[in-house]
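pasting input
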Amino acid sequence: MAVTFTLNGKPTTLDVDPNMPLLWAIREVAGLTGTKFGCGMALCGACTVHIEGQATRSCVTPLSAVAGQNVVTIEGLSSKAARAVQAAWRKLDVVQCGYCQSGQIMSATALLAHTPKPNDSDINSAMNGNICRCATYVRIRAAIHEAARGMEG
Amino acid sequence: MGEFAIGQGVPRFEDPRLVRGEGHYVGDIDLPGMAFGHVLRSPHAHARIRAIDVNQAKAAPGVLAVLTGADWQASGFGDLPVPGGLKRRDGAPLYRPPFPALVKDRARWVGDYVAFVVAETIHQAMDAAELIAVDYEVLPAITAAADAVAPGVPLVWDDCPNNICFVQLEGDKAATDAAFARADHVVKHRLVINRVTAASMEPRGSVGVYHPADGRYTIYTTLQRAHTFREELAKNVLRVPENKVRVVAGDIGGSFGMKSAVYNEVGLVLLAAKVVGRPVKWISTRSEAFLGDAQARDNVTEAELALDRDGNFLAVRVKTIANLGAYLQVGGQSFISNIGTLAGVYRTPALHADITAVFTHTNPVRPYRGNGRPEAAYVIERLVDLAADQLGLDPVELRRRNTIPPQAMPFRTGLTFTYDSGEFAQNMDMALKLGDFNGFEKRRAQAHQRGKLRGIGISNTIERAAAPSYEGAEIRFDRSGAVTLLSGTVNQGQGHETTFKQIVCDRLGLDPREVQYLQGDTDQVFFGEGTGGSRSATIGGSAFLLATEKILVKAKALAAHLLKVAVDDTKFADGIFSSPKTNQTVTINEVAKAAAAPARLPKGMEPGLVATAVFNLEVENFPNGCHVCELEIDPDTGQVEMMRYSVVDDVGTVINPLLVHGQIVGGIAQGVGQILMEDIRFDADSGQLISGSFMDYAMPRASDLSSVQVKSNPVPTPTNPLGVKGCGEAGCVGAMPAVANAIVDALSGLGIRHIEMPATPERIWRAINNSPGRAGQPAAAEPR
């Protein structure tokens, strides 16, 4: 049974098992590999995408759940918050190995879309589900504050 | 000196693609006709395999092949490499267990490799694996290092008595024992370093391809040292010359030592590719990462420090039992090469280490950020704090009294190494200032008012980086005058591209934004080794420096010819050749273009502007620094909160402070993780892994790390032309003792002198409630 939804702004129909986790539908059927597998149990955040603007773990979301919905992956990020986040990430040299960063950026962008001026506590609650083994957390925090300032201009 | 020069905090050139999801990791590889492999792993820590029936699995939908230990043995492929060279206590060679990619008759840990199923899809392979009937006879298992040598315990290898693989003795035993005999004070403690796992966010993976026409193999995989990997794989497993093997690493999502082995799956995807005639892909799940990845640390040390009545260190003596796991991977033994860092930054004249390495029914153990250095630093720096407590001395003063002064450099320590440089006392002074050590007692009193226990911990640590070895680098100007750099090192997040571009572009006056960078492909990179042990800036960087010198020799000769002046009259600065004898100039890019036109060359000059260099490092370097950790403990819950963390590091010449600080902070987080929360735990009876998911294995998260202040006190080393000291592991080395000392300091008012790692809230809560300071409270025993 095919599932139709909007992927990165484009109407998309994927004719696969609707129980397939969204992560694998995006990566292996739609061919967008920017979203990463980390644990398959919603414990690490590497697979985070936006569904209707909400940061969501795609590894535990069945494809059927996004029927008719708006899904954005790292490849489709284009909002003001996203541009500010990616610019701050580069300026503050956040990234190390890069593997978790798609998920970090998706979580940070969703946070800023809802909370344009987050405090450290907001950042902790939005970002605690995203593990970074290189421990770029200190710079992620600084970059979110930087991006928030960038969005004002 | 431009905006990209050595010393500038240049934002990474790797990042534009990584922040857009354009990284290319092994999991992203999709080759035409690719099949998928799945490993059937032993569910038992120790079992005899009486029989394996794969018939049903072979008949399952989509299945292309099912390989067992018997197939592996008959394949003509060799077993995985096993290191040698060490000895047991009686002088006999170390025990070298066989290391087939699939076991035949005995499984030795929960996760050991029993069969490999290849199918059209990964789910078909997984489903078929469930149809393999393995007749196991479950045997008793041993998982704890300290118990492994006891008489009568289960043996991992039947012909390896007491499970002892090798014994390493280091230092002067007679001098050490004599110093202990005359010491005024002896401080002793048993220190347990728990087992942890690297848990890189990118799991391991491999895609194997066999090219029958020319008998060549290609492996796309996660690794650290592409050329060394090719050597081990070609020689031991594939049994072909190295030119028959292409090793390709794309972006690597963290490794920390873990991915540096030739793992079983590498041999399996290549054999499977040969058998089924298609590319075969295997990607680890997270559960498999816990069950199959090599793990780390896991040793128990009886440590002693001898002092005279004035608090001078006379000697250090350690007896360690180190867990190797069930097999001996190449590198699994390499922690012994860092034992010398037990000397710390102190003048201690005599040291002796007695290390027994044992097999257990657990995952193999291999290097993990520090590889023996954090353990050594933890032992010596905990001993110093324990000594200060026992003798009633100030831990800062005790350190200061024993610290090697800069004027003593080069300083030959009492154990193995000769330090070349370092301002150890100054590091400590700077770090204490950075952490406002003098204001601590006030903050402690304020915390007490809030019902919190506040502690401060110091570690003065040193580590060994860049063990002597070589690395390759190539600078390739093309016909358009543009430049490509190729390195034998392999980045796993450190930022090699940025670092090497800074080194080369600084010298050659190039714009790094216009330079391409390549690594990790043995068909493209002419020669090299790879990354590990904090070696890449030192050795890979020096190789690029050497290559720039070669480029400049030729480019200068050609520039002089183009400018019609003598070579000696030609100058080079900021990418431009000039001469006082002419008002003409020529850029290095123009020289490169001319080098591609034979008619423009001086007679006899070879066309092209390309240089390869192999830098051979003869002496390692010793990054050092001081960490000051301040934290608070909630006595009602045992929860630790990091309040302040200050580091002064000496990693020699800083090529890029942004990258160095990122490495230091990342290392600190892994040290903090081990001391506070991370724990690989096996059930003592069954040998089952208990902490096998991110639900059970606690990882440091955003809220666990407060801001970290990092300041550099660089003392360039004379041991390499750049003056750099490795920075990849230094943070982890310093953090373990600093955090542990801070926790004990916070609890010291209750009479608590030590706490084992990980100091989880439960463990701290129990320690508080069992402490002399809480006498009369109900006792709470710690569960095993």
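fyi Chain A touches chain B through 49 residues (CB under 8 Å).
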